[in-house]
Amino acid sequence: MENSTPTTKEFALTRQFAAPRALVFQALTEADRLARWWGPKDFAMVSAKVDLRPGGLFHYQMLSPEGHVMWGRFAYREIVAPERIVFTNSFSDAAGGVTRAPFSPTWPLEVLNTLTLTEAAGLTTVTLRGGPVNATPEERRTFEGHFTSMQQGFGGTFDQLAAYLAKL
Amino acid sequence: MATDVLSLTFSALADPTRRAILGRLSAGEASVKELARPFRISLPGISKHLKVLERAGLVARSRAAQWRPCRLRPAPLKQVSDWTEEYRQHWEGRFDRLGEYLAEIQRPGKKSPNPPKHGK
Fold it and tell me: What span, in angstroms and rounded, lies between the C-alpha atoms of B22 and A22?
């Protein structure tokens, strides 16, 4: 029962962590650290490999509580240690390819995520921006416009529509 | 190629005029003329936007009446807002676990590979 009125926050999620930025960045980018927390609760990380550079992958294998094997990957686009990580996230296979989500045919093939890290008074703030994305640069540019438009849209003239959707 | 519902919908929503059209239609049917009124855009201009919205399945035009009223079809929008909610929850969960992990490795007595002594 959270948001009956969608807000501009939908595509930007912010969280504060009581840890220095350098450590949070490590937790977000090192394989053995990612293995300790990435993935749904109760899933076991079976293997995790990170090649941290634009074009490189974080490729991982998880085991669901029911024993299903699941592969996933981050494909890095931009790394600015310890401030910013831009990557697409998708389901994957043993070979590291991009695959459809096992639970939904409409879940986007790849999701573009931008994580931004800032530190103040010993606290690190991580901001996530993201949404579905397609592979070509043109589609990517279009999509970057979409975030803003979705945010402005739902925040402004779209309020009426948002309220209407919330009732469906 | 952007052929899935989500991409088509996002693409249709990328334009402020189209969003305003949808906003107007959420209040009820309207003719092209009525839709054009608040904008400084020609009727053909509005028709172009309507075509994009129709292609994305966001708007339907009736053939029954001569003025062919436009009607909102909310299902794809619903899908976008559902997706957004799912995505948000997914990352809330990830951040919960990251927070737990960071707390655990910084607990006093635990050997931390990166002592977080900041001194303020």
Answer: 45
Amino acid at B107: R
Residue of B nearest to A153 (CA): B19
Q: Coil, strand, or helix at residue B90?
A: helix
Does the predicted interface ipTM exceed a cut of 0.85? no
Q: Which residues contact B44 (CB under 8 A, 6 or more apart)?
A: none
CB atoms within 10 A of CB B52: 19
The CATH code belonging to domain A8-166 is 3.30.530.20
A122 and B15: CB-CB below 8 Å? no
Nearest to B71 by CA among B26, B15, B103, B104: B26
pLDDT in tens, A17-74: 999 999 999 999 999 999 999 988 888 999 999 999 999 999 999 998 999 999 999 9
3-state secondary structure of A138: helix
**What distance in Å separates residue B18's CA from the closest CA in chain A?**
10
Give residue for tokens 């334009």.
B15
Q: Does B58 touch chain A (CB under 8 A)?
A: no
Question: Could you say which of A10, A17, A153 has the minimum Cβ distance to residue B98?
Answer: A17
Instruction: From residue A78, give the alpha-carbon distance in Å to each of A52, A54, A73, A81, A83.
Output: 9, 5, 15, 10, 11
Domain boundaries, chain A: 8-166
For residue A10, give the nearest of B27, B72, B88 by CB distance.
B88
* B117 and chain A in contact, CB less than 8 A: no
* CATH number belonging to domain B5-73: 1.10.10.10
| Contact criterion met (CB below 8 Å) for A83 and A117 | yes
- Could you tell me the pTM of the whole model? 0.69
Residues listed for chain A = 168
